[in-house]
Amino acid sequence: MINFNYENDFNLDNELVLSEWLSKVILSEGKTEGEINYIFCDDEYLHKLNVEYLDHDTLTDVISFDYTMGNEISGDCFISVERVEDNAKDFKVSFDEELKRVLVHGMLHYCGYKDKSEEDEKAMRDKEDEKLLLFHVKQ
């Protein structure tokens, strides 16, 4: 089950469409869907988590806490709406496209993809692009 939660004024207007797409992403990776929580917040909220749990004193767009057991994907994915807005401007894409990329990025971490090395980061970007195409495929 995919849940969307809000720690700020932001609200998705297409939760069902996004959750159906993210479920397709999970299936396309040969995984099963457990409990996945997306929590939308601001920079301050996510920065506190980054410092407290990861010992990183930086702003970030997404932090994924992975509770996956075996093949069943589960986790809490925190997303800073402010970072997504800024990144969309920097990358010259729409807010919606950048948000989808961040949503699927968190999910791909649960599927086992990493992004710490340059090689892993490229593989993650390629996988994000592949999964973004799934969004436009009718069920």
From TrEMBL:
Cofactor note as given: Binds 1 zinc ion.
Binding site for Zn(2+): 105, 109, 115
Main location per the UniProt record: cytoplasm
EC numbers, comma separated: 3.1.-.-
Family in the record: Belongs to the endoribonuclease YbeY family.
Task of the protein: Single strand-specific metallo-endoribonuclease involved in late-stage 70S ribosome quality control and in maturation of the 3' terminus of the 16S rRNA.
UniProt cross-references to Gene3D superfamilies, sorted A to Z: Metalloproteases ('zincins'), catalytic domain
Protein name: Endoribonuclease YbeY
Keywords on record: Cytoplasm, Endonuclease, Hydrolase, Metal-binding, Nuclease, Ribosome biogenesis, rRNA processing, Zinc
Named cofactor requirement(s): Zn(2+)
Pfam families (UniProt xref): YbeY (PF02130)
